[in-house]
Protein 1
Amino acid sequence: MTFAIPHGQRLPLAIAGLAFVFLGLFLVYPLVNVFGASFLDAEGTAFTFANYTKMLGRPFYRAAVVNTLEIGVAATLITTVLAVPFAFALARLPIPGKSAILAMASLPLILPSFVSAYALVLLLGRSGIVTQWLQAHGIGFGSIYGMGGIVAVYTLTLYPYVLLPTIAAFKAVDVSMEEAAQSLGSSPGRTVWTVTLPIVLPAILAGGLLVFIETLENFGVPFVLAEDMPIFAVEAFKLFIGETAPNPSSAGVLGVLLILTTTLVLLIQRRFLAHRRFATNARQAPPLLKVGAGVQALATVYCWAVVTLALVPFFSIVVLSFMEFRGPVLHPHFSLDNFAFLFDRALRPLANTLMFATAAALAVTLIGVPVGYVVTRYRSGVASLLDVLATLPFAVAGTVLAIGFIVSFNAGALVLTGGPLILVLAYTVRKVPFAVRSASAIVHQIDVSLEEASVSLGRSPLQTFLRIVVPLMLGGILSGMVLSWVTVASELSATIVLYSGPWSTLTVVMFQALESGGAGIATAAASFLIVVSLLPIALLYRLVRRYELS
Amino acid sequence: MSGIVIAGASRTFGTVRAVDRVDLTVEQGEFFTLLGPSGCGKTTLLRMIAGFTPLDAGEIRFGERRIDRLPAHVRDIGMVFQNYAVFPTLSVAGNVAYGLKARRVPAAEIGPRVEEALAMVQLAGYGGRQPHELSGGQLQRVAIARALVIRPHVLLFDEPLSNLDARLRVSMRSEIRALQKSLGITAIYVTHDQEEAMSVSDRIALMNHGRLEQVGVPEEIYRKPATRFAAEFMGTTNLVEARALGLAAPVWVSLRPEALRFAEEAPVGWPRLPGAVVALEMLGPITRLDVKLENGSVMKMVLLDAPGQIVREGQVVTLAYDPSRLTVVS
Ligand SMILES: Nc1ncnc2c1ncn2[C@@H]1O[C@H](COP(=O)(O)OP(=O)(O)OP(=O)(O)O)[C@@H](O)[C@H]1O
Ligand SMILES: [Mg+2]
């Protein structure tokens, strides 16, 4: 027998095979090259640890490690402390306008975080609008540059990572456990502390670790706010692009250290938390707690304050984009000049952004949906390996992946540098984990016997997947695609390494404007990005609503 | 066409022998039931026939044709699932037409065949409905119509009635049997409910720990259980060592409660057993009694209700049993 693969395994193996080829070529191979570069000597021939000893021997790079970790830990802790009471209030207290709060609280996840950082500079930076106004009135305040500002921006843009799963966890708590505790004489406050909180702890920690990873990988926020404070992802970029001589081996060292750290955190998260979910079989969401008017008012103000504060930077950017800038200096008149300038100078990047986002969203969906299906439906070594490989991009900072792409595809059989495809491929790889996760979550909800019924009626597994599974996943596929589209449109860290010539994007325009002080066009680009992010989400929301109503 | 032959079929999950060297022949047109307690391997065996669980060893044939290596979608099977598995994205007619389209039946033929199948399950005129507009019982009818309409070689049912309420279960099971008989399609039916199995089946295979315990027509399995497990699983019984009934042989015997009577109502030839009533349970048409014999063993018996009948706990009675209903079990 030459073909001993059981029939039921052929479709998943075919999907896994294609995914392995794609991820092997555009994820593993570039990463191997980054590792390789970090272990090779100056001639690129002999194996050496010298790059590591050299880099870690320099106080500057040691400081980068310490700063990055410090910022990450601080942002994670503050985010958690901020988000958990918020989640509790939304899940269990009577708060007016809950659905509005929830919708607003998800927005920071889809809006570009470096825009938020940039808004902070425009408002509170050295020559910021608010700063100048305050100075005119003789009021001074601390600098937003450096650790404080970075942590603040991370907190305001990443808190939904903790908030959203924690709300879900609070809602999934079986009330009978709380009732049992209270019947045993525990006060309501003590019950929350001793019974409810431990049950939701895994969700909180899982969200917190996501925040931590995001801070390690982020490039845009420290680039805007760090000034001369060394930060990992930024230094890797500078070393690689370096005005003097591009240095793949030193950049590789930082890249490898970054990957190892994020992978470690991710492993901790998956190993210790994925299986540590406490089984609670809540039949319905627990009832709202009865609290005094004072507590209710306090909780309401708190929730509204957090969501609003997180959106203030984005809102201000939009307002500012309609004002007149002369160089970096703002004049408070209404003006469309910034947009005229943007459409005049940056029409090409604008079109590129839309085009790349569309191409990448389609590619991500085409890969993520079948892979999510396979990793959920099939228990085998191959499926687990695929799962790990499809999650890996999450642990790889955009900057590092991009460096790997350049090292891998600037010569040899497959040359991609200098063209648009390299950007689309990098985006696709970066977003695959999200698409796989969301597809997998939907497949979990689909009863396997539907597929078996279809097969027993004479449809092959592939036809069954296309005719039964895909239609059932359609809503989820669509929203996953829109999310990919939106997040790709505002991608900065890989883009900034990979773009070339005419293939720049809106984020690059903003980045360059930041460096050269062209605040006007930057605010217009940022506004445009914000609108471009919100529009499809709003459309999707209406579409899904209509779909559900019919 | 002819029946289904299963020879030496085995399947192990980790350390669990879910199906252990099963040999079975199901005749063409037969209504055959796999019966057994939870976890005994009924579903696994059914899924082996359907093609969803590969065999570790053994083979399955439809007549002369070996099918256990074929992919599930070419085996020509109609399967009805416990949770209906009606496609929520398709209308009722779309569901029923699904298998016909997969078989590339000409479009002109599909409409009439769908209508005919829906009429058979008493859902004529429901073709345009969406699945979420139907009740559980109606959904299960759609699932049955969908499996019937393709005229498969075999119909497989995995506990198709267990999600329905008790009354509907009773009426649906006789409908399923009537349909199967009128179409003449071989059916293999899985259930853990012995009463359901007895009421629908031509023959029953009783399974335990992945093995066949006994195969036979319902009456035979009920009246002549081969093993202690079979005797107990098929209904309440008295499993006693023969010595407790005053017999010499060192064997276990099964005696159903309805084979016992009070001595005064029993034929003279029946052996007598003196004892005392230790528990009784009046259920309406029948009364269940536990009678403790002098040697300490407790016998269960049932009495049909009768006017003026009075039995009390503690009452001293003499029982008699029908020796022809005594079954030696291994
Ligand atoms: N996919 C599987 N992986 C591991 N073990 C399995 C799998 N399927 C079945 N088993 C085991 O095989 C044994 C037989 O299972 P099966 O589902 O065939 O039982 P069943 O007779 O249908 O029971 P029930 O009446 O509860 O449906 C059980 O011990 C079960 O745990
Ligand atoms: Mg079963």
Protein 2
Amino acid sequence: MAEESLAIGTDEWVAAHEGRTSGQVQGPVARTFGRLPWWVWGSIAVLVAVVLPLIGSTYLMRVGVNLGLFLMLALGLNLVVGYAGLLDIGYVAFYGLGAYGFAMLASDKFGVHLPTVVAVPVVVAAVSIFGLVLGLAARRLLGDYLAIVTLFFGQMFVEFALSGDAITVPGRAEQVDLTGGTNGITDVDRFSFLGVEFSSDRWYYYLLVVLVVLLALAVRRLDGSRIGRAWKAVGQDPLAAEAMTMPVNRLKIMAFVVGAGIAGLAGTVFAAVQRGVFPSSFDLPLLILLYAAVILGGSGSLKGALIGAALLSLLPEALREPSYSEMVFVLLLVAGLALAVRSWRDRIIVVVATVVFGFVMNLLFTLLHVQGVPASAWTSGPVSTLLGHWLFVPQDRVLWGNLGFVGLVVLLAVLTLVGTRVRPILLPAIVWLSIFVWFVRLADVPSITRQLLIGALLIVLMIVRPQGLFGRRQVEVL
Amino acid sequence: MELFVQQLVNGLTLGGVYALIALGYTLIYGVLQLLNFAHGEVYMVGAFTGFFVMVGLGGPGKPIVPVWLMIVAMFLAAMVVSGLLGVGIERFAYRPLRESTRIAPLISALGVSLFLQNAVLLLFGSRVRSYDTPRYWSGAGPQVAGVQVNPVRILVLVLAIILMVGLTRLVEKTAFGRGMRAVAYDRDAAVMMGIDVNKVIVLVFFVASALAGAAGVMVGLVFFNVNNYMGFLAGLKGFTAAVVGGIGSIPGAMLGGLLIGLIESFTTAYVSANFASVLSFLVLILVMLLKPRGLLGTRAIVKV
Amino acid sequence: MRAQPEPAGAALSDGPPGPLTPLLQLSGINTFYGPVHILEDVNLVVGKGELVCLLGGNACGKSTTLKTALGLVAPRTGTVTFDGVDVTSRPTSERVRRGMAVVPENRRLFAPMTVLENLQIGAWVRGAPDPADLDRVFELFPLLEQRSAQIAGTLSGGEQQMVAMGRALMSRPSLMLMDEPSMGLSPRLVEQSFELIETLHRDGVSMLIVEQNANMALSIADRGYVLQTGRIVLRGSAQELSNHDELRRAYLGR
Ligand SMILES: Nc1ncnc2c1ncn2[C@@H]1O[C@H](COP(=O)(O)OP(=O)(O)OP(=O)(O)O)[C@@H](O)[C@H]1O
Ligand SMILES: [Mg+2]
């Protein structure tokens, strides 16, 4: 943005706006986190990131690369949503465009093999231009309009990628294949700079560490700069900003374009590290996961975006391994219980009641002659061995697990409706049922479970703490 | 010419379905200024409900009741289940957020969407289920301009029209409709008149969701296959229809639905199936640029 | 007005005259908007059949008092009693069903709907609208019958005021809460609407009227309260208030 286009008086207003919002309450997590200066945390994180490959396995490198990509995307989305307050539901499409763009310019698909130093800037520029066009199309970018246009744009991208392998061009007999359809584009070139080829994940990992650090530093700088403050002001109160003759639309479109460019850049890395691109990588689940990350951390907060993204990117990895997933589950359960019941006496009562409830249910299953299997037969890990004597595991785990799931959802819904008096009575049943459903059903289907948890997380987070872990209570986001 | 008539009928049927979904978006937006992104999932659950009722009654193989009764039961059950689901969504995911930021219910809606898609996947698996309508209903349809028209499509079209007329009457002629319009126009003033706004909102969600449920059964009857991801795209189309017609406007939703349905069916027939969605998207952008309030809309989409 | 605010309000004479039973009673009301303390320990009574006016400068909390009575905002402490029932935690819809009705500030008609529909919405809490109610409103406002199919937003200010009052009457209230019924009306129309208020009052509807036009209000009221920055600083019979020196200087311009 050209500095001189800022009208006189704008700066004072931006500063005043800052003053109005910054004095507000920070979350408890933010306070704990804030005890040490940011660069201490930052250095620790970077140090860990740099040292990790020395001890890490190939698997760990893969996780690291995914984390890096996710962090980049989260930082970009945080600019768009958290700073400028734009609800961009098509964000992932820019990631996809970047990936497909690079794949088209550097693979056997069209026999084009542009060098990385040319291909990447070209693609990033092209994706940014896409962002610009889309931003201009939703002209005033006000509230729900943008959501609609971008939602559609995201879907169109996936559809185009899916069916772009058989495009009928008027005046030509044979159909044109642009995207490879469901098969995507494979054999994408690796990155190579100055004759050095990025031959393993480790290279990309370090590249991403550098990119994320640079981006994070840039965002930090932005936080204190005129344009950063202006963005935040526009995001929080566009009308007031407009009244102060800030070029609201230009600021917003710019945020939108920068976000698109970052996603495009991440996309090129993704294409190169995967050595292939497929439509399903850029669909709604990724988008929702990204939103969950940015919002969990607290939109508009740098460390919030980083930590939220790290949590949500690593959580699925934890769910993949049965013994880890058990641990995650137990932690979630304990944390949930600790939050739901405030006094130690009640906590003990609930735990004891849950144990008793479990034995009663065990008895009930036996009396009803439900076929069961020993618990030790279907999973390992210390926790489940202990639980084996207490938790009845029916033979037909799908049926009973599903019934339990429905029951659990209903009970949780009821829990929010009843008064505090009745809650302790419901809790043991809920705790038992969660354990039952988890071991009997959910632990078997980690990908579904993950999505269910993220969906539930988004709803609960919006209700309990819409500003996220590190966010400040905002005036108004849209 | 034959192709044209065929596509016209197809387009109208599809349009009727989109219109029903669009009406749900419009009703809810009109009353709450909320884009209910989870609406597509409500429609998907309606389609599943219809399917299971059919299976429960012995279909598609050997229905234990007359076929017409089975179809009536499918529609009724789907409308009730979807309606209740909509009410539940409002109660648990939107109501706590009514005084929150504008973005919060949108995010919450995304969460609901994801949750429902995966809950259905968990409960019923990813197996494709088919209504397989021809196995219990294979009459010859009427001739229109020399073209044999599938009777199922006629049923769907007629039913969609009946539902739309019914809804229009409900909104314009009944006390509930008046209350609904009052809440939509000025919620606080409606409260002052003693209107229980929550009750009105619950009813609006029920009606909107029941329409989506009916649309789900219609799609099942016409296109057979149902799965847990079907809601997203249909929701998007219905939503486009609502915006093109002018969100908040009931005749707008109907017009938008028919328009999108016709565009899709004619593009598929004369250009390419690949471009059907892209073209609706272009129409959406075009309408938003030229007539930001939609074709028949009177209100701006965001109250500022 | 320089009167030192006193929590209970300086009483010129004590409360409603003996035989009246209280219809609406606000006791010890403290209302906040966020952190801002708007009403401080407000005590106010409207007896059955009384016409009470609430006077005060801009932004002193008059509308907030009505909103608290109607349940549109919840007081942090204090109780609202209506017709012998504690309605403090009851929703507005129930209060309206019990007999409160409001003519809100700026009227707040449902502009895109017809006059008739506006009136019918007024009868919402009565379930099936009673034709007799409509007839009574049309009798009071013959003009509205002619205009019943007109879109409310296109009416003139004076006509809109009639619709707002008619709409409130449709629920057959025992207590009408009126927020600045004279706002934006020509002197002639102000007079007319005050005549109407008197008529309604004579028909047995109790009234709590918020007014800037203190002269007019006191001329028809039985009693009055004066609110200043959220506190009741004066109360007494209309007679006493019109003769009160400081009040005269501050509001009555005499
Ligand atoms: N919803 C609200 N949120 C925050 N503050 C409010 C709200 N409504 C009113 N206020 C504030 O409360 C104070 C009292 O408002 P109120 O409307 O009761 O005044 P009033 O006496 O009716 O004034 P007027 O004569 O101008 O109508 C004002 O300062 C106003 O700004
Ligand atoms: Mg006022």
